């Protein structure tokens, strides 16, 4: 155990932080089809006297450095539970201001029955978005402030670099973190450089998920290749709870009619087990339309492990670990729709995403809150359509996630695209005549 002062322990850890990032050149290698990264964030747990005391964050890349070799470093003096509390606070705002927000339906010269606009439909009035957005911007700005401003001069430099880079131009960023799980897309930094938006103000370009491509990864990962196809078709595993058949029946029929897809529906727990035990993994794209549970609605994490349900049986990350033999080949991509009725939160990804990514899943896209069923089905529909758009070069998943966020905001006046996070796979695409140019 170290006997130095707190400042000495922090200084020693900071001096070693670059060496702890493995090989930074390898972290920058995204393969021949990889999009250039404007920035790379590395966030590692910070241990002080043997206790988890916070996180070391290092910024790398041209977006953050004032000079070529600069790599700003700082300490986020919050342990995992405190980070989770702050994330849950932001998430609660989204649930209250969007998912569960209700009003009396306006009628001629009167008010009608109660409605939940964002829960019941995708397309909404511009006024509803204008009313909801300021609370979301404030919540994202407060989360950014707690994580990247509340610290010593080094952390404040980190926060300032992040603000400046975000305001300058759209960015493509990879964050490497095994224990620091936050909803990056919900962060908000004012485009004019202010710490907080003014009362009633919300510029969509201030939301990180609207303006930037941000992927979260755990450790180093293999360069991306195209999603696996067979005989020119993408095999889409559609895993869903049979109790949700009424909500997905129309989408199943639409996907089944697409010539570019080989649709494989699964509703039985035993079929899911068989798929994960198979080598190679049978799906190129595996979609889950299920009720997901994080650790409950409370701010503090609970001991019950995150899980989802299929065939009225629970599935945890420990189950996946028991089923998967070695690595997932040929690097499938996972698309998650966590529907209302569950208790979705960021801790779900701290377990499931980590397990799948460590098994070489190509990537995961999923929401940070329980998504209304009508929105979840539309999001999947548009995601698959853009993935199979047959453009040259084909659209990559990172681009698709950002396109959908902007599309739903501008065209449907719906902010829920922002809650979808990308865990690895920003460069993923469907193979089209040999891959992207």
Helix content: 25-40%
Instruction: Output the radius of gyration.
Output: 21 Å
CATH architecture of the domain at 229-423: 3-Layer(aba) Sandwich
Order of helices and strands: HHEEEHEEHHHEHEEEHEHEEEHEHEHHE
Provide a count of the helices. Answer: 13
Estimate the mean pLDDT confidence.
85
CATH topology of the domain at 229-423: Rossmann fold
Q: Which structural class fits the helix and strand makeup? A: alpha/beta
Supply the CATH class of the domain at 229-423. Alpha Beta
Sheet-strand content, in percent, reads 15-25%
- What separation lies between the terminal Cα atoms? 53 Å
List keywords for this structure.
437 residues; 14-stranded mixed β-sheet; 13 helices; 16 strands; globular; disordered N terminus; disordered C terminus
């Amino acid at each position: 155990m170290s006997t130095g002062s707190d400042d000495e322990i922090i200084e020693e850890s900071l001096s070693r932080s670059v060496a702890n990032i493995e090989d930074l050149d390898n972290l920058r290698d995204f393969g021949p089809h990889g999009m250039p990264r404007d920035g790379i964030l590395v966030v590692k747990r910070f241990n002080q006297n043997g206790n988890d005391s916070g996180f070391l964050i290092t910024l790398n890349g041209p977006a953050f450095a004032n000079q070529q070799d600069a790599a700003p470093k700082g300490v986020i003096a919050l342990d995992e539970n405190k980070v989770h509390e702050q994330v849950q606070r932001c998430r609660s705002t989204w649930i209250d201001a969007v998912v569960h927000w209700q009003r009396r339906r306006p009628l001629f010269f009167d008010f009608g029955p109660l409605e939940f606009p964002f829960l019941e439909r995708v397309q909404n009035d511009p006024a509803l978005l204008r009313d909801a957005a300021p609370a979301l911007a404030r919540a994202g700005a407060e989360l950014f402030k707690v994580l990247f401003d509340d610290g010593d001069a080094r952390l404040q430099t980190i926060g300032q670099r992040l603000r400046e880079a975000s305001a300058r131009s759209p960015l493509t960023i990879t964050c490497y973190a095994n224990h620091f799980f936050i909803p990056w897309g919900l962060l908000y930094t004012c485009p004019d450089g202010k710490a907080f938006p003014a009362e009633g103000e919300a510029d969509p370009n201030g939301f990180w998920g609207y303006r930037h491509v941000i992927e979260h990864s755990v450790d180093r990962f293999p360069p991306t290749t195209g999603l696996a196809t067979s005989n020119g078709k993408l095999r889409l595993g559609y895993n869903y709870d049979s109790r949700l058949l009424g909500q997905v029946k129309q989408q199943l029929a639409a996907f089944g009619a697409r010539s570019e897809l080989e649709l494989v529906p699964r509703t039985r727990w035993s079929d899911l087990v068989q798929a994960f035990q198979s080598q190679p993994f049978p799906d190129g794209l595996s979609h889950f339309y299920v009720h997901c549970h994080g650790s409950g609605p409370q701010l503090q994490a609970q001991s019950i492990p995150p899980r989802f349900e299929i065939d009225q049986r629970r599935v945890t990350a420990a189950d996946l670990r028991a089923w998967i033999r070695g690595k997932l080949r040929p690097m499938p991509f996972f698309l998650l729709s966590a529907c209302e009725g569950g208790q979705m939160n960021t801790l779900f990804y701290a377990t499931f995403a980590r397990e799948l990514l460590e098994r070489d899943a190509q990537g995961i896209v999923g929401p940070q809150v329980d998504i209304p069923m009508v929105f979840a089905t539309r999001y999947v529909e548009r995601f698959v359509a853009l993935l199979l758009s047959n453009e040259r070069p084909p659209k990559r998943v990172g681009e698709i996630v950002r396109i959908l966020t902007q599309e739903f905001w501008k065209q449907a006046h719906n902010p829920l695209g922002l809650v979808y996070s990308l865990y690895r796979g920003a460069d993923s695409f469907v193979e089209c005549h040999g891959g992207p140019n």
